[in-house]
Amino acid sequence: MKYALAGLIGLTVLTGCGPASEEAKPTEKAAADIKDSAFNPNYKNYLKTLASDEFEGRAPASEGGEKAVSFIENHFREWGLKPYDEENNSYRQPLPLVKLMPYKVSSLSFSGESAPESMKYRTEIMAWTPRVVEEVNLTDSDVVFVGYGIVAPEYDWNDYEGLDVEGKTVVMFVNDPGYATGDPELFNGNAMTYYGRWTYKYEEAARQGAKAAFVIHETGPAGYGWGVVAGGSPVKFDLKRDNKNIDRAAVEGWITEKSANALFASVGKSLEEMKEQAVSGEFKPQSLDIQAAMTINNKYEYLDTNNVIGYIEGTKYPEEHVIYMAHHDHLGMDPVREDDPIYNGAQDNASGTAALMAMAEEFSKQPRPERSIVFAAVGAEESGLLGSAWYADNPLLPLGKAVGGINMDVMNVYGPMKDMVVVGYGNSNMDDYLKPYVEAQDRYIAPEPTPEKGFFYRSDHFNLAKKGVPMLYAKGGNDHFTKGREWGEEQRAIFNRDAYHKPADEFDENWDLRGVQQDMSLFYAVGEELANSREWPKWAPGNEFEAARKATQDMRK
After folding, report:
1. Running DSSP on this structure, what letter comes out for residue 56?
2. Cα–Cα dist 355/504, whole Å
3. Which of 61, 191, 215, 331 qualifies as a FRET site for 536, CA 20 to 30 Å off?
4. Cα separation of 48 and 472, whole Å?
């Protein structure tokens, strides 16, 4: 799909690669692809196939999901990638899952002198158990307000300091103090950190010994309305673990703002007053002098799906490696829908999986790099980033020797964009490796427009970041070369309104794939540079993932 747009692509070949190396240069192939945007002409076919009705929305452990796994695996084999399981010549990394199905959830009731009325499931609270058990009971559990529920040594912040919450129910705000105050010197200012994610808050509550953990929902700091929390299916997936998640809190959930105000009224306070208290440097956890109780009845079943992993072994440093990642799953089918039961997931994320395949194919045609390159098509992302979490705990190669990674999720199908949007901009210097190649396309890097919504923590790269691996998550933005920003923003809005996680996310022959071709050439160039260098990308000083990277520093000498 070669094209010529006046002024679109700069014709000057880069002579340097920014902070990576003053002498490093893009490969001839990368430079050529940057100019004509025809990175891999097979991309369209991979996208169209993965998004077809034949694959039935690629749900984990489904017939359609299995077809997607086989499709990727067969191509990895055709291209001569080394398999994840060399002994059995298999590219499949088994991904054991458990499906949790709460079928009866009581109201959240309270006792105590100033106890509020009970809170109804779905309308006032949303609750579940992560434990793989048939029933959990919360009985006479003391309710404690713990501010933002954060323990962050790098920010000198500990909401649990001096507090024993063993067996208790903790209540906390979503997001983090930086967002709440707007103070750029507090956490990461308006941009959400890992500590602001509700998933972290449940994890920390469990580490502290809490029996139940509730996050207060507010649309602004959460990034979505109550309907997103309470309107979907209560069915959840998790990784199969020997301990059946007994180390997790028995109950996790959300409560509405109105419900939070009712709780705080027990100590004569309002939500806003408690928020002021939570962001103060003098915050102390506060008992609400009430006790909570509820029961959750649960069914569960075990399922098996797969990540698909192949790699090109490095010629000099085979354990050092660059990682390309994309999730191959989507939501599958809804048998109740009569009009269109298939959630095809064309943009989300057949587009990223096709890009991963296109990347693997192109690298397979080139001389082997000095470092290895791993291509990981992970499963069960829509179920909670589970495939990447499993890979992070069971990597093909030691993650302490991972140079860096690139995640591809919902690629740009609307044509060539001037802006290359980096999600989590400034988290690491992976941005700096990308920048010169972006400029060679006469484009510019743009930070994500809503960092407060924490999108960096909502895709698969996050699980590798938690292990310390510097990760790049970027995609073509909205500033179209010929149609302008307003048009590009309109296309994204239409997708989010009409197609995101809906059957309408289908392949469209009218899509303009020139933009994704350009983006793939960028990802190729960054990976190729790192795979043939002695560079080790770094997290920004003070970043929440820096400590994990430093913990494996001896592996990179």
Report:
1. G
2. 21
3. 191
4. 26
pLDDT tens digit sequence for 319-353: 999 999 999 999 999 887 878 899 999 999 999 99
pLDDT value, residue 228: 85
Cβ atoms of 180 and 272 within 8 Å: the answer is: no
Whether the ω angle into residue 306 lies within 30 degrees of 0, i.e. cis, is no
Summary mean pLDDT of the chain: 91
Residue 150: name the closest of 110, 115, 190, 177 by CA: 177
Interatomic CA distance for residues 205 and 248, integer angstroms: 8
Do 147 and 264 meet the contact criterion of CB atoms below 8 Å apart? no
pLDDT for 43 equals: 97
Architecture of the domain whose range is 28-96+304-556:
3-Layer(aba) Sandwich (3.40)
* pLDDT tens string 479-517: 999 999 999 999 999 999 999 999 999 999 999 999 999
Beta carbons of 67 and 54 less than 8 angstroms apart: yes
CB-side exposure of 27: number of CA atoms within 13 Å? 20
Strand pairing partners for 343?
332
Query: In 120-267, at which residue ranges do the beta strands (DSSP E only) sit?
Result: 125-128, 135-145, 151-152, 157-158, 169-173, 212-216, 236-239, 251-255
Tell me: the pLDDT tens digits for 376-408?
999 999 999 999 999 999 999 999 999 999 999
Average pLDDT on 105-117 reads 94
Measured between alpha carbons, how far is residue 337 from residues 95, 232, 342, 503 in Å?
29, 15, 9, 10
Percentage of residues of the chain with pLDDT beyond 70: 93
Of the chain, the percentage scoring pLDDT greater than 90 comes to 84
Residue 249 has pLDDT above 80, yes or no: yes
Q: Hey, how many other C-beta atoms are within 10 angstroms of the C-beta on 484?
A: 13
Neighbours of 261 (CB within 10 A): 18
Report the residue count for the chain.
Answer: 557
Q: What whole-number distance in Å separates Cα of residue 151 and Cα of residue 155?
A: 9
What is the three-class DSSP state of 324? strand
**pTM of the full structure:** 0.88
Q: Exposed, middle or buried: residue 460 (CB in 10 Å: 0-12, 13-18, 19+)?
A: buried
* Strand, coil or helix: 297: strand
Q: Please determine, for residue 3, whether its predicted confidence score (pLDDT) is greater than 70.
A: no
In CATH, 99-300 is 3.50.30.30 = yes
Tokens for 477?
């933005």
What count of Cα atoms within 13 Å lies in the side-chain half-sphere of residue 370? 9
- Quick one: which of 188, 173, 155 has its CA closest to 221? 173
For the record, the structure tokens of 432 come out as: 């700096």
pLDDT at 454: 87
Using alpha carbons only, how large is the chain's radius of gyration in Å?
Answer: 24
Nearest Cα to Cα of residue 211 among 301, 133, 144: 144
In DSSP notation, 456-521 reads GGSSTHHHHHHTT--EEEEEE-S-BTTTHHHHHHHHHHHHHHHTTTSTT----TT-BTHHHHHHHH
Residue 474 · residue 521 · CB < 8 Å: no
Report the C-alpha gap between 439 and 431 in whole angstroms. 12
